[in-house]
Amino acid sequence: MASLPQSTTSPNAISRSRLQEADSFPFPPTYSFPPFYTLQPTLLTRTSQLAKWSLLIQRYHAHHHRYRLHIPTALSSPLFHNAAIHKRLSLASVIEIVNYMVKAEKDGGGGQRAEWIATAAGKGSEKTEAWVWWKKPDEWADVIAAWVDRTGQKGVVLTFWELLNGDVVKGEEWLGMEDEVLARCLAGLVKRGKAQVFGEEGEKGVKFF
Predict the structure, then answer these.
(1) In angstroms, how far is the first alpha carbon of the chain from the final one?
(2) How many other C-beta atoms are found inside a 10 Å radius of the C-beta of residue 9?
(3) Tell me: the pLDDT tens digits for 50-90?
């Protein structure tokens, strides 16, 4: 399998570029409510706020087909900064919201709809980036498995690049997904015996069964 050209643009740079584009996302009415940007001390109200912010973050990322939340950049983006009413979330509030999203519902969290990304030094405690699972990896695995059945891809070998950017997936929901996210999704299909992943970085491929 031929090696494919690698992008020299970092995910952070891509995120910054996209966040500077005009925002077409249809924000909910609560987005224009000033108290929404200050987490309230009352537990019931605060939990309701956290749940609403979690849903907003998921929908925003789904709308823009993004999977990675880079907090230092996002603080100045329309997601957390409503310029029209001069309100924005604080860094501490965003971290608390993502912590809520990371936790399971049984633990009082938002259903594991986010996951902190460890830094290059392996220290996840810095909490500057997180995956946003508007679809969890297992849910994406179901979507891809359905596509394999629908389009007759069983027995076919595809490179990661083809599965993310090729004509064969044009119009599919995961078009443009990051390699690392795709690998997580395909791992679920491998466990089910529905796929085999092989190859080195930059030239990985997958065969569906």
Answers:
(1) 19
(2) 9
(3) 999 999 999 999 999 999 999 999 999 999 999 999 999 99
